[in-house]
Amino acid sequence: MWISRLRRVRRTIMVLGVANFVVIVFGGVLTLVSESGCDSAGQLFPLYAVCLAAAVKLAAMVKVGTTQELMAMTIMDSPTQNSLQRKLKYKTWLWWTRFAMVITVLQFIGATYLMFRVAKYVSRDGLPRDCVLGLYQDTRGWKQTLEVAFLITVCFVALAQCFTGSDILQWRSFYATQDDAWKAHYQEVFDHGIREVLCCLGRREYMGVIEEDEVCSVARLLGDLVSYRASGTGHLEFLAGLALLQHNSQYPESYEDCMEAPAFHLQEAAMLHKFAEAAYTGPLLDVGRNPALFLCTWICRQGILTPWSRKWRPKLDGDNWWRGHAAAFLKFINFPAHVLRRGRICREKCKATYFVVVLHYLRCVVIAVRGTETAEDLITDGLGRACSLTAEDLDGLPNHIHGMDPSRKHYGHSGIVEASRDLFMQVEGDPGESGSIGFLSSLIGDGCECDGYSIRIVGHSLGGAIASLLGIRLRCRFPNLYVYAYGPLPCVDSEVADACSEFVTSIVLHNEFSSRLSYGSIRRLQVAAIKVLSQDPKADTALIFRLARRFLSASKHQRENVEEKTSEEPMLSTSVNESPESLQQQDQIYPIWEEAEAEMQQDVEEFINPFHDMASVDNPVSQFMETVPTREDDDDEAPEMFLPGLVLHIVPEGNNMSVPIWRGWPICDVTDGYKAYVANRESFKELMVSPSMFLDHLPWRCRHALQKVLESRNLFFDLTSEPDIV
């Protein structure tokens, strides 16, 4: 029994356990052989402290290992049940793990203090001037050797424990390749982690929740996405696979046969983009635009330095006492206060922050919906499971449009659907018993202030997706309505996405990740990354480390010219449905291997990729791939999510980046410009692993690209007008 338990212990932990035991033994011997004149408490205190810390660390390691085993066994007993016992076991293990980490910090401090005391009593010639660790300066022989060995062991333990991690046992020794067990494990990790982050941000209502809630749903989704661990793939190897995908991914499709984006939509989208960007009234926008001076910029934009102007600012629900969010929004769009009629600053899950602006000179009412900025917004993003759309959600889509079948169920992103329903009640709502009308009806209705005005709903990222579903519901009440979603999340099924093309436009900048982010796309990306590693026999450990580092250091630039690359290097397809024979043929040549150092090339034959030659259906990789949905799966219970409406894809022109082989970072070339095309939403079902996938999602980059597109087509717009800018 004990032998089987020892086999579960990590080898590094065994080494550290022996080292801590050696520290205790050496410290005890030095205490016993200390000289009579050097055995004072002041002289031996560092020795006692280091030995005591090592003993406590050993005991903590045993306790952590025991609680880790109990937690793993609990998960193995019921991997599909989210029980209270499992949560308690995880919290117990986490508490002991953090206690062990505190002891590690104390050991590091104790080792530093010990070396400082030793250096204090050593002269410049290297000989001690006084008693050191209970021994006189003239002590020689085995005692001096023991003293030196003790100091070396203490320093080794203090430094090594900082890089070995907190796990005592190997999780794989329990879970092996059981997909449900890995999902349950990471569900607990994400669930507790998210709740602790929310608690640190002041959301204490999420702590101690046992029943199913939104955090639990997000944690379950994230746990499913880390299930690649069941295939035998570690986190580092998965990153290496993503790095290979980034280098060998499909090159951008040709747009020669595609129609250019309509000029009117481009002009209006560029004109209204600043409202979607201004909705980010928190510090996030300023951190991205001014990393060095973001605090000063945010304070200025919030109007903290001019509190006397508070009374002239509109009062919004949830705003701070000096009405800073209203000030930040108005300062960014550079409009007077009277144009902002209504708004809400919200920090709750599945509830959106929005602003309502009236532009009289354009005869237009603009509703700007904020994207992801708070932890609660991330929870809304994470509620990515599909939910059924009700008839009220699809009020703006008559059954005859595009042949929609009224008897068929339609689906949407559950978090976004709930947020759009709440926002609808805020801006319009259903008439009550008293017959009262909603806010928009009171503003745009017959005989009202804005009678005959058009409605434009805009939003970026999460805000764009919420705006799209809000527009679908409001369309039947306000026919003169249009929605512009910048970098939205896929949020509706294919039929709904097609049906709203007449009044919804989704704008995607190059390789941005959010417009391709769905549960199915991430799962397929996992398979593609693992398949890249499993297909190549030369993927050695050193190269995996190098590729992982290169992938994590995301570049600000784009890849080399497509035509030059395709004429020189073959392309590795990342499609999940590619045949194994074609993949093996393509894997014979990897351009990335040409970038490896000479010494890595010499020893390449000594390394064997553990994923290679796994052709049997019984191997972990095959078992994992069987659980992943393919692009052709059409399951009513888990339908694919798509971008809503007409999709405009903005792509760069020319060569924007050059990556020389002898250097590890890109060199920036001059951007030639951008072009916008009408794209097929099917093209955004797969995540594009690219250095610019996160940077392209930044709102100011989209605004810059739209302006470049207008300049290239000699199209202009003017948002200002004298009657409003006073």
Automatic annotation (TrEMBL):
Residues 558-568 have a biased composition (Basic and acidic residues). Residues 558-584 are annotated as: Disordered. It holds the Pfam family Lipase_3. Residues 366-511 form the Fungal lipase-type domain. Residues 6-228 form the DUF7358 domain. Keywords: Hydrolase, Membrane, Transmembrane, Transmembrane helix. This is Sn1-specific diacylglycerol lipase beta isoform X1. The gene is LOC104754730.
